[in-house]
Amino acid sequence: MIMKFIADKNMILFSNEFTFTNHIEDVPNKSQFIAVALKEKIEMIKKKELDNLLIEGYKATRNEDNKINDDWERVTFDQ
Q1: Residue 38 half-sphere exposure toward CB, CA atoms < 13 A
Q2: Burial letters for 28-66: b for 16+ Cβ neighbours within 10 Å, e otherwise?
Q3: 44/42 Cα distance (integer angstroms)
Q4: What is the mean pLDDT of the chain?
Q5: Phi-psi region for residue 9, left (φ > 0), alpha (ψ -120 to 50) or beta?
Q6: pLDDT score of 13
Q7: How far apart are CA 7 and CA 27, in angstroms?
Q8: Distance separating alpha carbons of residues 31 and 57, to the nearest angstrom
Q9: What is the pLDDT of residue 47?
Q10: Which pLDDT belongs to residue 55?
Q11: Cα(11)–Cα(6) distance, rounded to whole angstroms?
Q12: Can you give the pLDDT at residue 2?
């Protein structure tokens, strides 16, 4: 894959599509736009990592949770 880039003043934008550059040309404050986009991307990556850790944790404690639930059901139904 060939990476295309556009140099504008003090920044270089890498893009697989030139459509991105068409949209950013209309943005008055490109640096702020890029900073916000990067912040959102980093937050999305952190959220995905947290989701994966939560899934891993839930899977790791599944058997213990099922045993506790079974114990509570027996006690509840015995009364």
Answers
A1: 8
A2: eeeeeeeeeeeeeeeeeeeeeeeeeeeeeeeeeeeeeee
A3: 5
A4: 76
A5: left
A6: 53
A7: 15
A8: 39
A9: 95
A10: 95
A11: 9
A12: 41
Dihedral sign from CA coordinates of 36, 40, 45, 47: positive
Q: For the chain, where are the alpha helices, taking DSSP H only?
A: 19-24, 30-60, 62-78
Please give the single-letter amino acid code of residue 57. Answer: G
Tokens of 77: 């139904």
The parts of the chain modelled with pLDDT lower than 70 are: 1-24, 79
- pLDDT value for 3: 43
Using the structure block, give the residue that is written with the tokens 């459509």. Answer: 19
